[in-house]
């Protein structure tokens, strides 16, 4: 039987590109996009869409039954910077949507779950260079606490109920098809837009704040690779470290200047600096490489070329 896949939060930065990639791979009509708002025109035109609140279990159950869904990708969440402004809303959305999906799988209404975690699970006591898969995790943000708790619950549902849940700790994701949704690494997207429109950008992080980052194509490829891997190869049921590159605002500015020499950056750090300071500089993703053959393809230079070329079109 052909599998049907439901994407929750499909209109966001990752969900949009994930929907395109899954539709290309499995066929437009087998991938059901859903969100609490409509997405961009090309997403809405590319296949079935449902207005669906991921925190509403009954509505979710109905859609799963109607489309005979076998896999759910849960991309709905409140991101790091926004979550600091609305702590309880973030906690309720991030946790209740996860419980809903895990419980659907526990009740055997779906077979497989993808849920993204984040480098925000780490905190200032975590070794910040080449952060290991298993290490101290004392997140200081609402978002990080929700992701760390989510990881423990995923692991619990796998061990207790045999739920096939798979997860990646995404680094900051860089993409040009949609705008970012309120995270601490959003600067690394805004900077390319500003480089093309005004040739100047004021960064909300300090120039030497190095963070783990990844181009969206790598993130989508990793997600599909993990979801297609044999279950016995998935040794980690909390969430996998994943890495591609690490850079500071000064380094991304340099890389833009190599293509736009009169681009200028200034720095005016805000509350997001404290969040960024608590996160790792770089990530050790050797477990993902060993278990399911992960390897990144985009470095900073290639990312800058892709971003500027596509945004200029
Ligand atoms: N973008 C990144 O750099 C990054 C990094 C690490 C982890 N992640 C994680 O990946 C996932 C997706 O992130 P994103 O960047 O695409 O976020 P985003 O903010 O761009 O998109 C989230 C989407 O969820 C939708 N949504 C909000 N509440 C909802 C609800 N109750 N029901 C259904 N949909 C709802 C929003 O309308 C939005 O379209 C999140 O779990 C996020 O924590 C993202």
UniProtKB/TrEMBL annotation:
Occurrences of domain NAD-dependent epimerase/dehydratase (ranges): 5-233
InterPro entries cross-referenced by the UniProt entry: Epimerase_deHydtase, NAD(P)-bd_dom_sf, NAD(P)_epim/dehydratase
Name used for this protein in its record: NAD-dependent epimerase/dehydratase family protein
Family note: Belongs to the NAD(P)-dependent epimerase/dehydratase family.
């Amino acid at each position: 039987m052909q599998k049907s896949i439901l994407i929750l939060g499909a209109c966001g930065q990752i969900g949009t590109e994930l929907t395109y990639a899954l539709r290309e791979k499995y066929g437009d009509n087998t991938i059901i996009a859903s969100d609490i708002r409509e997405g961009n025109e090309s997403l809405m035109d590319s296949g079935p869409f449902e207005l669906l609140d991921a925190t509403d279990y009954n509505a979710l159950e109905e859609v799963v039954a109607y489309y005979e869904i076998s896999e759910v990708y849960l991309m709905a969440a409140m991101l790091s910077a926004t979550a600091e402004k609305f702590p309880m809303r973030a906690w309720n959305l991030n946790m209740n949507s996860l419980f809903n999906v895990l419980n659907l799988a526990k009740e055997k209404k779906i077979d497989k779950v993808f849920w993204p975690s984040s480098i925000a699970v780490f905190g200032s006591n975590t070794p910040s260079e080449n952060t290991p898969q298993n290490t101290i995790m004392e997140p200081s943000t609402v978002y990080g606490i929700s992701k760390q708790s989510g990881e423990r619950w995923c692991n619990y549902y796998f061990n207790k109920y045999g739920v096939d849940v798979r997860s990646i700790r995404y680094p900051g994701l860089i993409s040009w098809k949609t705008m970012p949704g309120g995270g601490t690494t959003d600067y690394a997207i805004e900077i390319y837009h500003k480089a093309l429109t005004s040739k100047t950008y004021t960064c909300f992080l300090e120039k030497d704040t190095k963070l783990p980052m990844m181009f969206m194509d790598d993130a989508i490829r990793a997600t599909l690779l993990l979801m297609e891997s044999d279950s016995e190869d998935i040794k980690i049921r909390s969430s996998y470290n994943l890495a591609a590159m690490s850079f500071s605002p000064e380094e991304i500015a340099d890389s833009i200047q190599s293509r736009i020499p009169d681009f200028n950056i200034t720095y005016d750090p805000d509350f997001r600096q404290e969040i960024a300071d608590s996160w790792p500089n770089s990530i050790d993703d050797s477990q993902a490489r060993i278990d399911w053959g992960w390897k990144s393809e985009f470095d900073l230079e290639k990312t800058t070329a892709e971003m500027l070329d596509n945004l200029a079109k």
